[in-house]
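Data deposition worksheet. Section B asks for the primary sequence of the deposited chain exactly as it was used as input, without tags or linkers unless they were present during the calculation. Section C holds the resulting structure in token form. Section D is free text for depositor observations; keep each observation to a single sentence. Incomplete worksheets are returned to the depositor.
Section A, Depositor: J.P.
Section B:
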Amino acid sequence: MKGCILILILIFLPLFNISPQDFSGSFILYDYDEQITIILKKNSKSAVTGTMSSGGIEYTINAEQQGNKLNGKMEGLGESLNIIAELVDNQLHFTLYEPGTDPDEYAETWVFERSGQTTAQRQSEDSKVIINGIVLTDEQISEIEETYSVKPLPGDYWYDTYSGLYGVVEYPAFGFMFAGHDYGEMDSNASNGDVGVFVNGRELPQLEWAVWSQLLGYIIQPGRYWLDENGNAGYEENPIPTENLYLAAQRNYYSGSGGGGDNIWSSRFGAGNYDSNNQRGYVSVPGYGPVGYGF
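Section C:
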């Protein structure tokens, strides 16, 4: 069945330019003769912690990364301030405002320069390919390039070894790779899921849940499910599949053209085609790409 996924190889080509930015590192601002230093570290999932220090005074920073921005709090000396931060051309734009106030009216923004890394070190950091929290070795990157005929772009990705689904950390699924690669364990919150529907241990975000529900023709109820590389799906701890992704798409959106064994179907959420005896075909879902079977 793995041969059927050859149709998906082109999905890997873009491999996202929207990888969330890495806030980890040191940033310095010189305010007259005073040096203000921010040190940030990204922990598991999307949590970012750190400190802001100047003249022997230190504040703690606790924030959550949402896309390419940080939102959180800075606390110290008995006070607490809300913060918003983002990276612009390797500068940290750090905004402070009082809780309960409008940041558009009462905020103060400082611009910090990244420090503590040489140009070569920054290039090395920016060139990392991370899957399920593991930094890929040169050998692993070469294996991907050999398998898919394209070199993966640097970024922080999640990968589901059972189905082959993959995407950028904190984002929905983007496409399929071959199943079975060993890139460690996928985090249950890899896509910032929020609907209580888990597929192979990963909680789906609302957009992805809506797409799959539309494709299957019914609302997927909260629960824990499995999905394999052949499109079969079922309930965890029950090996008997209850659905097949490709057949469900045909069932719900079939509009056969008749003649030539060509059966094309389409909807606002997907499209596909299969031959007259339903031995080969594909499903194409926006945001995912073509999913083939029977090849």
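Section D:
The chain has two domains: 2-15+130-293, 25-116.
The chain is about 15% helix and 40% strand.
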